[in-house]
């Protein structure tokens, strides 16, 4: 009877460990260690501006650190895993939570003369770098997921 209880307890511990994701920074590279989950992968790949790539050898996702890449982690990972962030990422997330997470969004600002986009990643930049935003073509922002401030 004790053996059965022990195996059951070990099984529960293993199940708990298999549902954990760890997110950390390594030399300005954001890395995610996590177990396989096909539903997560399907949602993770839906975002066309998601710059994470799978490192087959080391078995983690990685990308250059940006507010957008951190936003992807915050918005998606918690739906599928118990997430642990490194201390520096916890601090960044808590600061952004105080600000209402609005700084995670890609937004277009107009200062009266020029248009500026914050929290842009390199893929989005490459897609829109030749567009000269004006009052006439602001509808393009919606197509690229850019909010207008």
Describe the structure.
This protein has 149 residues and is of the alpha/beta class. The protein folds into two domains: 20-102, no CATH class; 105-148, no CATH class. It has helices spanning 2-18, 38-46, 67-80, 87-98, 122-128, 139-143; strands spanning 20-26, 29-33, 53-55, 60-64, 82-85, 107-110, 115-118, 147-148. Strands 3-4-2-1-5 form a five-stranded mixed β-sheet. It has a three-stranded mixed β-sheet with strand order 7-6-8, with no helix packed on it. A hairpin with a 4-residue loop joins β3 and β4. α2 (38-46) runs antiparallel to α3 (67-80). It is elongated and about 50 Å long. It starts with a helix and ends with a strand. Mean pLDDT is 78; it is low at 1-17.
Describe how the helices and strands are arranged:
Elements: H1 2-18, E1 20-26, E2 29-33, H2 38-46, E3 53-55, E4 60-64, H3 67-80, E5 82-85, H4 87-98, E6 107-110, E7 115-118, H5 122-128, H6 139-143, E8 147-148
Parallel strand pairs: 1-5, 6-8
Antiparallel strand pairs: 1-2, 2-4, 3-4, 6-7
